[in-house]
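Office hours follow-up: a student asked to see two folded examples consecutively, so here they are.
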Amino acid sequence: MKLFIAITAAVFALATGPVFAQRADIATNPPEAPYQKVSDLVPLPDFLPGIGQLFIDPATLPAGPFVAYDHNGRLVSTIYMIPISQMNADTNFDNLAAPGGNVDHVDIYYNAGHPGVEEPHEHIVLWHVPAEDEASVAE
């Protein structure tokens, strides 16, 4: 529980801390190499409701960061998928990058696993859009 609180505090600090510049290589869909479309790497749909179209640098699997785009190609979030087995007192997650730029708000939720990140994990979603714009990836 202490580690979860520490991660939550770190993510909150990231979201409320200094303004981050959006990286030009991921500003538009598709992002530049080494990012690749997740649906080309593992058997997942091209667009995931609630998340969007995902891209990742395969060298950063399983944790990420993943970058997510809406149907119009707008970058909406940066997502980390941290395996539960790595969330222990001996592990730190320092300096999580927000390559998508400014972070408006953060969501953290459990996922039982899926292709690409089969192990149960937490999604740490750094939203670059206001909460009302999350609807752009709802369906």
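And the second, which I mentioned at the end of office hours:
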Amino acid sequence: MVFGDGLKGRAEFLRNAKPELVADLRLYSTEEGGRKSPIPPGWGCPCSAERNTNEAWDGFPILGEQEMRPGEARRVGFVFLSGEAAALLFRRAGSFYLWEGRFIGEATVVGRETSI
């Protein structure tokens, strides 16, 4: 996987990317310990099948043109830096967590390439 320069380049790449899995993503609200600001298109973070960071994989939600706010839930595609290896692990687990210095959200896998 090759990204362009910075957040803008990743956002452009992700707009046209085929998701490696589709999940119902919920960002924790700020009050639940989540982020204070929205995640923009092109953003990514380590993802873990368990609520620890012993094994994490870089994941990028496909947000299109619209940022996602703390407390929001949305069905999104995901692309992983490690590709199919990470997607297979998360499909088997059925869910995964998003890490950014703390757990900021969770995703429930709904399929491989179902409509978003």
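Two things to take away from it. The chain has a mean pLDDT of 92. The longest strand covers residues 103-111.
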